[in-house]
Design brief:
By secondary structure, the protein is an alpha/beta fold. 41% of the residues lie in helices and 16% in strands. Strands 6-14-13-12-11-7-10 form a 7-stranded mixed sheet, sandwiched between helices. The structure holds 4'-deoxy-4'-aminopyridoxal-5'-phosphate.
Length: 454
């Protein structure tokens, strides 16, 4: 009998069909509203990723607060997706909502800073360390800008990334590694540039592959997450980050640490909790409590080198920007988040909740004897439908089981818990209650019981 992740394919298909039908039957208002209103959008969704949820049609959200999201049909769902990290601190945290209300009548964008901006700058340094900061609107843009600076100060072209990584829609690094060679990822829309001239893919947890690439002398920067979170989660092995830091310095490349997801690790992200030493630090998503904001910071030495470059640069467009970035609404929300939401107390709550979830999921996996494992980075928990730990992007890709995962996601949603699409990620916010965690664990155990027929 054919199996995926230890589960019979026939049983996955039957389960998925049952759950999809139950989802659809429970949402007459949503269906009617979509039938009336979705036609204006390309493919019926305002952003093409919204097709990628496993449900037969999207959930329309009526409201969300804390760790609870309510759909148009009145279903109150425990939200563990939390906007795929954008709302990691809960939906509409009270201090952020207050700050937005206060700014709402004072103008929303000026291309000039505010007092909140100055306070936010000081708080960024307090939370993340002594860097020199810039504000962007998306982590994608922050990474793009970081790469420009790295190329500027080194005079080199290529960016080293890891097979299986994701750093936003940063065009230049959309590469993967196959049999030791870098190639463009398949599926890119309208791709014309030869990405192998702009990026090199090495293998995570494989310092030899990094050194081999750096030896070419044309790498401007290593761009990496501290933990690979965008395939199935891959933790760094002991010594990997120290090795990366050492190799980057030895070969004259900058080290860009992208903390867009690993900001779940604790106060100051993985960088602070594990003592990493990036030349450029990037994060986004939840940094302003859900208001579109990203930050990037240069170490003092990188800033000094960039200053020299910048002073000699020809006049004209820098290639870095976007008009709405560093607007007063972002600063109000950023300041409120850094001062009142991104606190040690809240991280402690998130950590305790995530440990509880991780233990509960592990127990459910063990009970049915599934060949799976559970992995956690602070407030971020993932179940993986394959044995672990995973070592690199090759293993992570093989561990991903789309059909099985989609069926589980749908089953969990029908039982009241929403988890992130694309991967099996669950986030614990400061607002997430023990009861919500226990409901998710119970739903997961029930779904596994049906899939493994115990
Ligand atoms: N960096 C990492 C590690 C990410 O996971 C993502 C998005 N998932 C980004 C950057 C890009 O963030 P955004 O889509 O907000 O630009």
């Amino acid at each position: 009998e054919a199996l995926i992740g230890g589960v019979s394919i026939k049983r996955i298909e039957a389960f998925a069909a049952r759950e999809a039908a139950a989802y659809a039957a429970a949402r007459p208002r949503t269906r009617a509203a979509l039938a009336e209103g979705a036609g204006a959008f390309l493919d019926g969704v305002p952003m093409h990723w919204m097709r990628d949820w496993p449900q037969p049609f999207p959930m329309l959200v009526a409201r969300a607060r804390g760790a609870r999201i309510e759909d148009l049909d009145g279903h109150k769902i425990d939200d563990f997706c939390l906007g795929d990290t954008g709302s990691m601190f809960g939906h509409s945290p009270a201090p952020v909502a207050r700050a937005i209300r206060a700014q709402a009548g004072r103008g929303l964008t000026y291309m000039l800073p505010t007092e909140d901006a100055l306070a936010a700058g000081r708080l960024l340094t307090e939370r993340f360390g002594p860097m020199l900061w810039q504000i962007a609107t998306t982590a994608t843009d922050a990474n793009r800008n970081a790469i420009r600076v790295a190329r500027a100060v080194t005079g080199r072209a290529k960016v080293l990334v890891f097979n299986g990584c994701y750093h936003g829609t940063v065009e230049d690094v959309m590469v993967r590694r196959r049999e030791g060679r870098t190639e463009a990822r398949p599926g890119l829309v309208g791709q014309v540039a030869d990405l192998t001239r702009l990026a090199v893919a090495a293998e995570f947890n494989d310092l030899a592959s990094v050194e081999a690439a750096l030896a070419g002398g044309d790498i401007a920067a290593i761009l990496t997450e501290p933990v690979m979170t965008n395939s199935c989660m891959v933790l760094p092995e002991p010594g990997f980050h120290a090795g990366l830091r050492d190799l980057a310095s030895r070969f004259g490349a900058l080290l860009i640490i992208d903390e867009t997801h690993t900001i779940s690790s604790g106060l100051g992200g993985y960088t602070r909790t594990h003592g990493l030493e990036p030349d450029i630090f990037v994060t986004g998503k939840c940094v302003a409590g859900g208001v579109a904001t990203a930050i990037w910071g240069l170490s003092r030495e990188t800033a000094r080198r960039f200053g020299v470059y910048d002073a000699a640069r020809a006049p004209g467009h820098s290639g870095m920007g976007t008009t709405l970035s560093a607007n007063p609404l972002q600063f109000a929300a950023l300041r409120a988040t850094l001062a009142e939401v991104m606190t040690p107390e809240n991280y402690a709550r998130m950590e305790a909740g995530a440990a509880r979830l991780s233990a509960g999921l592990t127990k459910a996996v063990t009970r049915v004897g599934a060949p799976w494992h559970v992995v956690r980075v602070g407030a971020r928990v993932e179940f993986i439908c394959a044995p672990g730990p995973l070592k690199n992007g090759i293993e992570a890709e093989a561990a991903h089981k789309p059909a099985l995962e989609a069926a589980i996601h749908q089953g969990l949603l029908n039982r009241g818990s929403l988890i992130a699409p694309f991967h099996n990620m669950m986030l614990i916010s400061p607002a997430t209650s023990r009861a919500q965690i226990d409901r998710l664990v119970a739903a997961f155990a029930e779904v596994l019981g049906q899939l493994f027929e115990t």
